[in-house]
Amino acid sequence: MGHRVRVLAGLWAMAEVVVLVLVAAWIGVGWTLLATLATTALGWALLARQGARALGELRERARERRPSGRAVGDAGLIAVGGVLMVLPGFLGDVVGLLCLLPPTRFLVRGLLGRAVVSRLPVGLRGPVRVRSARAEGPLGGPSGSGAHASGFGRPLVIEGEVVREEPVRDERP
């Protein structure tokens, strides 16, 4: 895994250099440097604003003792987006903006979610669909005593079947 990360980081850096050279050839070196400084300043401003909003949401959820849920993921995406915006390079700025702006953050969250789920073992992937049907009738308890779970003279019986989308492979030797 470490090798893949190093290769991806190297390819990313090479792509950033290529884009910087192309932009410099298109608009000039001075304008390219100015644009790079402007996107860095924009990154700091967006990081401060969105980061404060995300931390406020986390504090509010903690104070109300609610699960943090999506707020933790948003805070992580904002941190990553801020770092990408602050670092020089236009590709990182585009990805950073996608992470920082609330209307596009769901796209990044969805892509990351799919990537994580695809790496999970089949048994841990969701969703598991459950089909159920209610059966009513005079069913007694295990000893035939007639005791019912519902307490109203009719038993509460739920029959179900768990259906998996993909077959589970037997991994015994």
Automatic annotation (TrEMBL):
Annotated signal peptide: none
InterPro entries, sorted: FxsA
The keyword Cytoplasm is annotated on this UniProt entry: no
Region Disordered: start-end pairs: 133-152
GO cellular component: membrane
Keyword Lipid biosynthesis: no
Transmembrane feature ranges: 7-27, 33-50, 71-91
Keywords in alphabetical order: Membrane, Transmembrane, Transmembrane helix
UniProt cross-references to NCBIfam families, sorted A to Z: PRK11463.1-2
The protein's name: UPF0716 protein FxsA
Originating species: Geodermatophilus poikilotrophus
